[in-house]
């Protein structure tokens, strides 16, 4: 008889889940995010513990197959073709006709999706939406999936071959990465996006997804922190979002902190700023500015310079240069806010550990608290406080000039 991966662990994990379930109600969900995160982690460990050892290996390797099936469904627009109305259903034949695909291929794709909890099989070759499949009706979520699968995923898939070629050295060269190998290109990641408007649009949409932005501003009190001294009037720049994409971060901050005083400035490359304006950015509320963080920041003496999920894209030497270009523009009361994940030195989550491997594929890295401190020190900054988000490893690191 086959052996469970961890028979004793099953009992302990069931007990842990029962305890954590006491914090859950149908009306309000979990009482706090920490308990919810613990419940999810325990549930995932339980499924692994209850499988047979070889079954776990097969389950793991077929996750790649699942993402491939989802990407096929995205390409065929299947998520949009299945009727969105609650309880509505559609046959595989009707889906195949709508997306111009072979009916046999459609059935095989839908069978795999249903088996992995996407869609509901309401009858023979007949399907309706569930909560998981409905998530792909949101353009930003769809863009986020395409972005990771098509672009970041290219680097992750090529990583074994790339690291073998480089004698397993930690990749720090932006112009020579696993992404170049996987995407069959001589262009760096960002230049690759710039060269293809469709890919750039998918990337920018993905950056606006709820999964991408929901944590970033929850731990820092922008109004109480930045409305204190030195407020000199409405014309002062309160916050510069450096490499801020289409302005989604500043839009959320403005909504959550309507009392925040001063000007908000969005900085990015010309094509990104153009895309932001085309996407509805209001320049009367958020000032768009074409700028490169590889040059000294053109806004001098702002109350704060925000880097939200920017520095994890780059190696330490590049990040030192980026931060140094900010330091030269900071006033005596200015601060740098780095909104990123902090990798725990013990017990890192699978989500964060795997995201670090994604970043390795393009020459970036997720960092521990010590690594963040060392990086700030190298650029002439001192870490004065780390603002933490409940139930998450997402932090906002506040740095000041030494």
From TrEMBL:
<dbReference type="Pfam" id="PF08100">
    <property type="entry name" value="Dimerisation"/>
</dbReference>
<dbReference type="InterPro" id="IPR029063">
    <property type="entry name" value="SAM-dependent_MTases_sf"/>
</dbReference>
<dbReference type="GO" id="GO:0046983">
    <property type="term" value="F:protein dimerization activity"/>
</dbReference>
<dbReference type="InterPro" id="IPR036390">
    <property type="entry name" value="WH_DNA-bd_sf"/>
</dbReference>
<dbReference type="GO" id="GO:0008171">
    <property type="term" value="F:O-methyltransferase activity"/>
</dbReference>
<protein>
    <submittedName>
        <fullName>S-adenosyl-L-methionine-dependent methyltransferase</fullName>
    </submittedName>
</protein>
<keyword id="KW-0949">S-adenosyl-L-methionine</keyword>
<dbReference type="InterPro" id="IPR012967">
    <property type="entry name" value="COMT_dimerisation"/>
</dbReference>
<keyword id="KW-0489">Methyltransferase</keyword>
<keyword id="KW-0808">Transferase</keyword>
<dbReference type="GO" id="GO:0032259">
    <property type="term" value="P:methylation"/>
</dbReference>
<dbReference type="InterPro" id="IPR036388">
    <property type="entry name" value="WH-like_DNA-bd_sf"/>
</dbReference>
<dbReference type="InterPro" id="IPR001077">
    <property type="entry name" value="COMT_C"/>
</dbReference>
<dbReference type="Pfam" id="PF00891">
    <property type="entry name" value="Methyltransf_2"/>
</dbReference>
<feature type="domain" description="O-methyltransferase C-terminal">
    <location>
        <begin position="190"/>
        <end position="381"/>
    </location>
</feature>
<feature type="domain" description="O-methyltransferase dimerisation">
    <location>
        <begin position="64"/>
        <end position="138"/>
    </location>
</feature>
<dbReference type="InterPro" id="IPR016461">
    <property type="entry name" value="COMT-like"/>
</dbReference>
<feature type="active site" description="Proton acceptor">
    <location>
        <position position="312"/>
    </location>
</feature>
